[in-house]
Specification:
With 512 residues, the chain is an alpha/beta fold. 22% of the residues lie in helices and 27% in strands. Strands 1, 2, 14, 15, 16, 17, 18, 19, 20, 21 and 22 form an eleven-stranded antiparallel sheet that branches. The protein has an eight-stranded parallel barrel with strand order 3-4-5-6-7-8-9-10, surrounded by five helices. Strands 11-12-13 form a three-stranded mixed sheet. The two termini are 19 Å apart.
């Protein structure tokens, strides 16, 4: 017999009106949605660079922050317990005399030599993160490539120099690139390989002014490559799955008429010339990025609703595989210049919308580390690195972005199921995104319920949680809070109530 949880919350809004305005929130685990597969982050284009240059002790400190699930005797978290990690597979731009990419940390090494042999002493930074992820027993390791190896590209570079929207990979090297990816997957035990990244962009730069590696891909080119990779994986008896298409925007997954648009239909519609959904190695999960979907919720909630419908119709799962506060949409609703906590609250809001509206089964942040030169506030990274002059060491500053992600990644674990949340005020997703957001997740095996509360409002709340399981009240409830002065600080319920300050994030854990 199945056991069901019911998690009840009574929320009283603190306001000037005597007695306050009462709002009840009911979480019912009998109504279930997607199963969470993983929540993680990435090396981005920065992690491998510091991985081969920084002192081992500081790298290990970072690895603990990202991967550890330990809590000390004082209930202080040692890390945010990421359950997935994305690691870039380099194209070899760092080994070129004049690659044309301006920032050194955006250049990559490649395991492949020009003669087709492999040098496994290369890419020491990436290998460090692979080994650490395995040491911490992360459930999901993803290898992603921004560009094929430079030896096989049309212009011998890791990016395009012309605007033609065609892959930079020479047609005669599709099979070689597939073999390269299979070799990497086999050696390092990747669970997933993403062979293309944001195929909608041209990735065209003037040589000497290039920002990063990249290549455009049409849907037909992606399908051709995926068939080659699937053949290599099957021949080598690899269990690694191919994750596509890493769309640059959510809307590109279900609409548009360009050669790199409407990608769910392109790859999973049996009538499509580019259908690859029946290949054994292709993951039945569609990967896209939530960039440009963090502004006015009246627009971007609807995009997520449409995406969820398209994913359901195709019988797929949605993976959000890259997001940071890239454009100015994150400024929506903010007064004046954003502070660090503002960025953290936007990140938490994005997680809420992608998990609750788009029904993402997996969610990954763009880059775990970054430098202060990129932005005044931590829009793009979880931990800031202030390099010394030689860029062989530096100061580590943990930002509130790390803890915002941690409120989900540390407690919403693989295998948990998102469950229903009902509000007495009938607030829509658009309305709640501007103020108080609540999502809940249940582990049906261990009798545990996790609730994540994101309060972007200027009002504070008092919550009175009651948790029951099969008619039996679960009294063990603890919480972790991030606000202006606290970073995932542990607390217990005082007289059964929880104070939710203005502009805060809280995770409540109830059960065994």
């Amino acid at each position: 017999m199945k056991r069901f949880f019911v998690f009840f919350l009574v929320v009283v809004v603190a306001c000037a009106v005597s007695g306050g305005e009462e709002l009840s929130v009911t979480v019912d685990c009998r109504k279930q949605f997607q199963t969470i597969e993983n929540i993680g982050s990435s090396t981005g284009m920065h992690g491998a660079y510091i991985g081969r240059r920084f002192p081992r002790g500081k790298l290990d400190q970072l690895a603990e922050l990202f991967f550890s699930t330990e809590i000390d005797s004082n209930r202080k978290l040692k890390g945010i317990g990421l359950s997935s990690f994305r690691i870039q597979i380099g194209a070899g731009t760092d080994e070129q005399e004049n690659c044309g990419i301006v920032q050194p940390f955006r250049r990559t090494e490649c395991f492949l030599r020009p003669d087709g042999s492999y040098d496994w002493s290369r890419c020491a930074g990436a290998v460090y993160w692979i080994k650490k992820a395995k040491e911490y027993q992360l459930p999901c390791l993803i290898g992603y490539a921004n560009s094929p190896p430079v030896y096989w590209t049309e212009n011998g570079l890791g990016y395009k120099t012309g605007k033609a929207h065609r892959s930079n990979l020479k047609p005669e090297h599709y099979g070689d690139y597939a073999g390269f990816l299979a070799t990497i997957a086999a050696r390092f035990g990747f669970d997933y390989i993403s062979p293309v990244n944001e195929p909608q962009w041209d990735w065209a730069f003037e040589r000497g002014k290039a920002k990063q590696e990249g290549s455009p891909w049409t849907n037909a080119e992606i399908a051709t490559l995926v068939r080659e990779v699937d053949t290599e994986f099957r021949q080598r008896k690899l269990e690694t799955k191919i994750l596509i298409p890493e769309a640059a925007s959510l809307s590109a997954l279900f609409q548009g008429k360009s050669e790199s648009a409407n990608q769910i239909d392109a790859f999973w519609n049996k009538r499509s010339d580019n259908y690859v959904g029946d290949l054994r190695s292709v993951a039945q999960a569609v990967a896209g990025h939530s960039y440009f979907a963090d502004g006015d919720p009246r627009k971007y909630v609807r995009i997520r609703q449409k995406l969820a419908e398209a994913v359901k119709d195709a019988e797929l799962r949605f993976w959000q595989t890259e997001y940071s506060l890239l454009e100015e949409g994150y400024l929506h609703g903010l007064d004046g210049k954003p502070a660090e906590l503002d960025c953290a609250l936007v990140l938490a809001k994005q997680l809420h919308l992608d998990l609750s509206v788009a029904q993402a089964a997996a969610w990954q942040f763009w880059t775990s580390t970054g430098g202060k030169h990129v932005s005044r506030v931590p829009r793009f990274h979880l931990v800031r690195i202030d390099f010394n002059e030689e860029e062989t060491d530096g100061e580590i500053t943990v930002t509130k972005m790390l803890w915002a992600l941690g409120h989900y990644s540390r407690f919403v674990r693989p295998g948990m199921v998102r469950v229903d949340v009902q509000r007495s005020d009938k607030a829509t997703d658009e309305e709640s995104a501007e103020g108080l957001m609540v999502s809940a997740y249940a582990d049906l095996k261990t009798s545990r319920v996790v609730m994540v509360i994101v309060n972007r409002a200027k009002e504070s709340y008092t919550l009175d949680p009651k948790v029951s399981l099969g008619g039996r009240t679960l009294s063990r409830t603890e919480g972790f809070i991030t606000d202006e002065t606290r970073n995932m600080e542990w607390f217990t319920l005082s007289k059964g109530t929880v104070a939710v300050p203005a502009r805060s994030i809280i995770t409540l854990v109830a059960g065994r």
